[in-house]
Structures are given as structure tokens and as C-alpha cells.
Write a structure and sequence with these properties.
This protein is an alpha/beta fold and about 260 residues long. Helices cover about 30% and strands about 30% of the residues. The strands form 3 sheets. It has a 6-stranded mixed sheet, with helices on both faces. A 4-stranded antiparallel sheet has the order 2-1-4-5, covered by helices on one side.
Length: about 260
């Protein structure tokens, strides 16, 4: 379980969020949505210990995040930013192998178990045909699958993803989200991800958290959270909302609130 309690974060004299509490249960997918500038990515970075709130605490599996050593945290949780930087001359297999670094000691090279885990991660993400290629030659969708493979090789219990479908076309967006969902179900990995597309959050997440101006507007199941009222008050759009055949809410924007002022 990943839990944040009463977080307060201020950066460069700007208040980013105040008294913010949020939790993701074990084995759950939690999607964080909200308008640009609402604090979604900042919150995720705080949960990943990349940013330190001035007040409040974050707990991972009942242990305060600040008390984890760097190595312990790397074995328990993986954070993938929107656009991870990577050397242009590294192969796919070598990049995925980086996920094993938290389990290796300075006096011990890659073990047989490490190789088995890398092979498993490659198979799970369907990148076997790519493993000899340079990462720089991959398409956006291929690269995202490779990053997920590296994260899997790290064998985390919790996976944090910052807009994993950014810059991808609709086909590759669905491919990545279906892969994340499958890994969540098969491996029991807790997933917390920031998403831009509301319908994707509603379709693939167990719970949805809506942020507005640095605070939580609502947290709940997609059916309870993705409503006409939420879209009007948070995203300032008028929209139709209905349930698809799977029971997930689907929204279609029809216009802007107070569009006569534009």
C-alpha cells in the first residue's frame, strides 16, 4: 500500500498542494487526472521521493518512505517519468538489464538469476524481437514497452508512471495501457499513474483521483468520479457521460463552460 498523509509542498514561493492525503491499495491501479498545472506530476514525484514535501508523511507498505535506503526503495518501487533520458548507443537488452542494478553488489557481476529475470521481463512485455536493437532506433510505442520491461526487471511491488501514453497514437496508447493492466493483474503490482485522457483513466483504473489547483477534488471508482458535474467544475467543459458495455464511464465533451467569454 502506498499512502500519503497531509502533504504540504511549496516551491519557489508557490504553494503546490496543502494538506493532501491519498492512498493506493495493494494490487490496485490508481489514476490521477486533472487540468494542466493542477499538481498531478508534482504529487507523483513526491510519492516517488523525488520531491520532499515540507510537511506530511508518505508510507510504503506501512514503512515511512523517508526511512528507506536508496537500494531498498529501488527494490520496492519504480518511477518512470514522462520522457526518461537514455544513452543513444545502448541496446534494448542492456537497458532492461539496468533494472537489476538494485540487486547487485559492487563485488558481484550479473548473476544467472538476473539473466532469468531480464528474460522474463522481455517475454512479458513482448520485446524479444527488439532486444538487440539500439534504443534510439525504436518507435515511441516500442520504447515505452522497453521502459516497462526495465521496470519489471526491477521487480517492484509498486510502479509509478507519469503519463505513460504521452506522444503515442491511439493504437499504441491502448497497447501500453492494456499491457499495464495485464501486468497489474498477473503480478499484483500496485500502479499509480498520471493520465491525460479521462476515458483511459475510467477504463483502466480501479480508482480515480481528480486534482484541481493543488488539492483533491474527488477520489473514488470511475463510476462515481467521472461525472458531468466533475467535468464542468474541474475541467470547465460541458460533456455527455454514459457507461460502455464494460460498465466504465465514457465522456464526450460538447462545449466549454462560459464559452461566450472566449
Amino acid at each position: 500500500m502506498l499512502e500519503a498523509k497531509h502533504l504540504f509542498l511549496k516551491f519557489d514561493q508557490k504553494l503546490l498542494f496543502r494538506d493532501l492525503s491519498l492512498s493506493a491499495k495493494k494490487g490496485q491501479i490508481l489514476a490521477i487526472i486533472g487540468p494542466n498545472g493542477s499538481g498531478k506530476s508534482t504529487l507523483l514525484k513526491s510519492l516517488a521521493r523525488n520531491l520532499k514535501p515540507q510537511e506530511g508523511s508518505i508510507f510504503l507498505d506501512g514503512k515511512e518512505l523517508a526511512s528507506y535506503s536508496t537500494g531498498e526503495l529501488a527494490c520496492a518501487m519504480t518511477f518512470l517519468p514522462q520522457t526518461p533520458g537514455v544513452p543513444t548507443d545502448i541496446t534494448v537488452r542492456d537497458l532492461i538489464g539496468y533494472g537489476r542494478y538494485p540487486y547487485q553488489s559492487w563485488w558481484k557481476n550479473t548473476s544467472g538469476q538476473d539473466k532469468e529475470v531480464v528474460n522474463w521481463a522481455i517475454k512479458e512485455t513482448g520485446v524479444a524481437l527488439l532486444e538487440a536493437r539500439l534504443v534510439s532506433t525504436l518507435s515511441g510505442g516500442e520504447r515505452q514497452r522497453v521502459w516497462l520491461a526495465m521496470a519489471l526487471a526491477q521487480q517492484p511491488k509498486t510502479l509509478l508512471l507519469d503519463e505513460p501514453t504521452t506522444y503515442l497514437d491511439i493504437s499504441h496508447q491502448l497497447e501500453i495501457l492494456m499491457l499495464i493492466r495485464r501486468l497489474n493483474k498477473a503480478q499484483g503490482i500496485t500502479v499509480v499513474m498520471v493520465l491525460h485522457e479521462i476515458n483511459h483513466a475510467a477504463r483502466f483504473a480501479d480508482m480515480v483521483a481528480v486534482m484541481r489547483e493543488g488539492s483533491l477534488y474527488a477520489v473514488g471508482t470511475p463510476e462515481k468520479v467521472v461525472t458531468k458535474e466533475m467535468l464542468r467544475e474541474v475541467f470547465r467543459v460541458e460533456a455527455d457521460v454514459w457507461q460502455d458495455s464494460s460498465g466504465s464511464p465514457v465522456c464526450i465533451a460538447q462545449g466549454l463552460v462560459n464559452s461566450d467569454r472566449i
